[in-house]
Amino acid sequence: MKEIVNKIFEGFMRFASSKTVTALKDGFVLTMPATLIGSLFLLIANIPIPGYADFMARFLGAGWNVGLNQVSACTFDILAMIIAVGIGYAYAKNEKLDGISCGILSLISFLIVSASSVTAPSGETVTGVIPRTWTGGNGVIAAIIVGILVGKLFTFCQKRNLRIKMPAGVPEGVTNAFSALIPGLLVIFLSMVVYQLCMVYGGASLTELIFRLIQTPLQNVSSTWTGGILIVILISVLFWAGLHGPNIVMGVMAPILTANALANQAVLDAGKAMTAENGVRILTPQIIDCFVKLGGTGVTIGLLTAALMAARSRQMKEISRLSFIPGIFNINEPVIFGLPIVYNPILLIPFILVPLIAFVITYGAAVIGFLPVFGSVQIPWTTPLIVSGFILGGWRGAVVQMVILAVSVAVYYPFVRRQDRVFYQQEQQAQMEEGGRS
Fold first, then answer.
1. Alpha carbon distance 252, 269 (integer Å)
2. Which residues pair with 119 in a beta bridge?
3. Where are the beta strands (DSSP E) in 69-225?
4. In this structure, what DSSP letter does residue 235 have?
5. What's the pTM value of the predicted model, to 2 decimals?
6. pLDDT digit string (tens) for 338-371?
């Protein structure tokens, strides 16, 4: 049985360290400046305080938030383009090649295979445009696929010297530009062929087809109870096994959950009811980052609080004191690896159970309408608990976080007591042995 488990974890490790997944994670990180800055402006335009919008309109006029909304739209509505550039760049950069050229080719390829026309309200087709509908959340999966494929093709050509070489002494920028010509020609030609085939035989661009056939089903599955529970369990189990569960799982799921959030924001912006019938999806990155991982993976802020309340052993006391302040800011590696929780059978059950309870509480609060469904507003993952809940969901968000914190302390408490007894007995035994030697 142990060998089977080890093989499973080895498989996860190989998957997490593969070139494709590494490029996906590194490329998606490059979207953070845009999403965080866009979230800041969106938050200022929509602070969750009753009467805020009316107060601002009274002093600044009815159009007080036009500029704020323009900034948020021009960050979130080009997210797929940023992802295409980021993944292409990261793939080539990780292979020690020219990341900039690969990123630009990924962007060009994405635009080629995407729609280039929109239908006006009058029914007229307007061509020669880049529809934001497909450069934002709806184009995320297509952008991922394009970025990875372009990265692989660019790398293949470069490593097999399918490129134009310049003589020594030519500036690096010029060398890179000529080196990218042949890979660029192949990328653009293949993108054109794909677009042609999709339009002729599918009646839509590749981005639209991927959205219908792949992205929508993935978003639907990811936003269910089952999908959320699977994500939460995998994050905890992998981290307990010494692998960085959030990086592995969210490296794959973050783009899909982000697309969920962008879809929710589109419903909010349209003034429609936040219902499943209008395409609203509950599971978004904010639920994972700010509620399920409250105080860090495993909601270990509850473990630390319980330990500060009841610990007798020096090891438990010291580690809890040192880890508590970082835990408030959702940094819990000190307790994960210092206590440790990794491969600790006593703490395995609460480390999995508490995040599951947190997910059920948060998801349930959203289902019954107590907690608002989250849109595009993102906050830094280090934002302290309670503060993050209030920013995202007003006082209701803060209340949900406080409930999760209280439940986590209650669940961890008996396990902490048991672990503390083990440490205390070990320390007493060590003192007795040391006293006997002296």
1. 27
2. 125
3. 117-119, 125-127
4. H
5. 0.76
6. 888 888 888 999 999 999 999 999 999 999 989 9
| 317 closest CA partner among 307, 306, 325, 327 | 307
Query: Taking the chain, what is the end-to-end CA distance rounded to the nearest angstrom?
Result: 45
The Cα–Cα gap between 287 and 27 comes to 22
Whether cis (ω within 30° of 0) applies to the bond prior to 50 is no
Q: Which residues pair with 118 in a beta bridge?
A: 126
Mean pLDDT of 50-57: 82
Q: Are 294 and 405 in contact (CB under 8 A)?
A: yes
C-alpha 365/C-alpha 373 separation (Å) is: 10
Residue that is written with structure tokens 């209030």 in the block: 390
Angle between the N-to-C axes of helices 345-367 and 387-437, in degrees from 0 to 180, rounded to the nearest 10: 170
313 token code pair: 């052993």
Max Cα–Cα distance, the chain, nearest Å: 94
Rounded distance, CA 371 to CA 363, Å?
Answer: 9
Q: What is the pLDDT of residues 387-424, one digit of tens each?
A: 999 989 889 999 999 999 999 999 999 999 999 998 88
The answer to whether the beta carbons of residues 49 and 89 sit under 8 Å apart is no
Q: 233, 298 in Cβ contact below 8 A? A: no
Residue 422: CB atoms within 10 A of its CB come to 14
For residue 266, the one-letter residue type is A
Q: At 4, which amino acid appears?
A: I
- What is the sign, positive or negative, of the torsion defined by CA atoms of 65, 133, 104, 24? positive
